[in-house]
Amino acid sequence: MNIDMIRAAAERLRGHARRTPLLSSPFLDEIAGRRVWIKAECLQHTGSFKFRGAWSAVSALPDDVRARGVLAFSSGNHAQGVALAARAHGVPATIIMPQDAPRVKIDNTRQLGAEVILYDRAAGEDRDEIGAVLEAERGLTLVKPYDDPQVIAGQGTTGLEIAEQAAEVGIAQADVIVCCGGGGLSSGIALALNAEAPGLRVRTAEPEDFDDVARSLHSGRVERNTRLSGSLCDAIVTPQPGVLTFPILRRLAGPGFAVPEADALRAVALAFTRLKVVAEPGGAVALAAALFQPDTLAGDDVIVTISGGNIDPDVFQRALSTLETAPYSRGSAA
Amino acid sequence: MNIDMIRAAAERLRGHARRTPLLSSPFLDEIAGRRVWIKAECLQHTGSFKFRGAWSAVSALPDDVRARGVLAFSSGNHAQGVALAARAHGVPATIIMPQDAPRVKIDNTRQLGAEVILYDRAAGEDRDEIGAVLEAERGLTLVKPYDDPQVIAGQGTTGLEIAEQAAEVGIAQADVIVCCGGGGLSSGIALALNAEAPGLRVRTAEPEDFDDVARSLHSGRVERNTRLSGSLCDAIVTPQPGVLTFPILRRLAGPGFAVPEADALRAVALAFTRLKVVAEPGGAVALAAALFQPDTLAGDDVIVTISGGNIDPDVFQRALSTLETAPYSRGSAA
């Protein structure tokens, strides 16, 4: 993994991925006590940064390999990213999803042209086994969600844009808080910033109780989450830091944040009122950290990602209901 | 009014207004039966295009005049645009608002540094009289919401960006549907496109029963609305087309659209699910026209504005509830 791979990915993504805007609001600045700059990757195609990594990986394949098709395991954002990237390249995508995934995500993935194969978690069906058979029989290539160099390179293009956009508004020194699951986005951005804007330092944000990366960064070795479900921030919950991503983060990232679910929901609500963008809870943890955990931040500026906006309407309504209690104040809602 | 004024406004806005993205979604394309491109001005500073015109007008004033301060009448988006533009120029803003305006809008305008003067509509207080006294006593300059050449020039910068962005994605010929109240945005965009992208034609979109501009374009003379309240699209309801704006639209715009309120709400919901942006009902009428009134459209592409995103949470929740009935189908909800 190096910066040249990220630059090459940026070339392949040019004209296909969106250069998402860097947003801000004086109202958020006031809450945070400093200027807050928001890289709005929820405005990326398919509603999350995952499209970048998917496009990068699919476009990097040799023509004859790509033509046989790609495969992914996902119940969410990665599925849609791979489906759209494959369709735009004119090659088949097969996505293996749990049978109990939300109907709307299954429908979306199918509408993006992918073949969706459902498996029954409860009945003990093994998705890896299903995938291995498909790889062998159909000659499909697996696109992993984060532990793949071309996926990390694609996510890293977000970092190249942050470096450019920070320079445009005159920021040379700041923490860049990145929503973190397996670490593809945060490690990619960390590599890009290290090369292009060394005054900008990545820090991860994760849901409280699912902060495997923060704890791993703290201890210096891979720590696992004790549970894997029960978070509203499901899109960014992974068992442990990635094999490729963690060494990059250990080398380049600052201390991580663990964000209470209530703060993530309040950040979703503030993104609605102040930025006019739709954030999913897992995509709002970095904004929540900047707004409600200022103690370990320094300097006049902080940059955060909103990494995705694929949220169910009922969860969104729950987030909006936090506006009635304490829309502007700092600290966790009780 | 001419294109040079719009180009000059673009120079003054550079680095201050956002170049908002041109968004799209394959799901919206499918509903519309053609490619739909969305100019997301809800992502502009203060959540609407109004900031452009306000900045243009404030920045165009002679220094000594500007230093005395600016004045606006508004209960909504124009108020916030003028307040922020004045604050950024370091000059005082006075905004005259009705006492019964939503509390959050009054609070926002104050938080942006403006002095808010409330008047009592019910008690027959005359806002024009209050304004005239302030202009005389304090030497303030009134910034009108649309019938002002520098305001139209500022809104027209949206059109310069649309021309550039359409060229980037290869569109030479298309209708550009613009949310229309007094006509500042639509006439400004029409002037810009006429000069920069003559294959792009502006068409106005208004709420049903408040379609004074569409009727005026049809009859060729100024038609008035019979009522002025009772629309969820309140932000774009005006009594009649503007004195400066209507002649421009009569010369350059195609037939207007009148959009049922239910369709505007469905467009708000689709902007949430498919674009991850927050639209207010009045800001979503152009998208609604493109999706649900395709009969008078031709060609492979249509461009629309989402002009603002300042919506109350309860209205937003009402819009989201339309998803449960018929999120993807065409035609008006019954």
Automatic annotation (TrEMBL), chains A, B:
Single GO BP term: D-serine biosynthetic process
Family named by the database record: Belongs to the serine/threonine dehydratase family.
Descriptive protein name: Serine/threonine dehydratase
PANTHER family the record matches: SERINE / THREONINE RACEMASE FAMILY MEMBER (PTHR43050), SERINE RACEMASE (PTHR43050:SF1)
Alphabetical keyword list: Lyase, Magnesium, Pyridoxal phosphate
Location of the Tryptophan synthase beta chain-like PALP domain: 15-306
CDD domains: Thr-dehyd
